Amino acid sequence: MATTTTATGDATADETGVPRSINRVLDLFEIVLAERNCNLTAAASAAGLTPTTALRYLRALEARGYVDRDEAGDFSAGPTILRITASLRGGTVLDRLAATAQPHLERLAEHTGESSYLAVSDGRTGTYIATAESPRAIRHVGWIGQNVTLDGSALGAALEAPGTTVTRTGAIEADITAISRALPPNGKLGLAISIVGPEHRFSDDIRVAHDAEICATVDALTHELRTNGEDFTS
Length: 234
Description:
By secondary structure, the chain is an alpha+beta fold. Helix content is about 40%, strand content about 20%. It has seven helices and ten strands. The chain has a six-stranded antiparallel beta sheet, with helices on both faces. A two-stranded antiparallel ribbon has the order 1-2. The protein has a two-stranded antiparallel sheet with strand order 3-4. Helix 1 (about 20-35) crosses helix 2.
């Protein structure tokens, strides 16, 4: 990340002018939330910080209730963030977006025989917020609420090139294939639809058929989002 020295000489900042110390605090906060339960060593390593520095920032978050520390010294979501989350539950834009997408995901899962997902992205990380499970006995499940790196994943590649269907195998889970296609960009959040399933079920012919299905789903969902009067992405 590029850094510059602030006018006050107080701290270095990234290209947006955000002080590096603030970025580090936010990085640690996101790491703890993503891991659900995280010890100091793991948090510091993931953030690229020394344990001493990481502990100083985590203590600041703990003092404000954004993280909590148990008797073993592990960090998790604190009471403040839990309260904020509770206050938003059931009425957020993402809840309404997931509800709008659900019938489309269910049709996609039915037509392809594979689990389908809707992901949102802030440009740095993707998070799966809705799914329809495959009707097959052996199927992919468990990505709701999961954060996914954009680097190397089908989701990330699709978000980089809206209008393109991208396939990746083993990027997030071994022997799992994901086919993703992003909705046209519109606002702050990126949106993408994915089909996910065991690698052995994705022959070349099947991938072509899945491509057509996911394209149709993205087009249908895009049309509905544009005509229902609510901006889900800004």
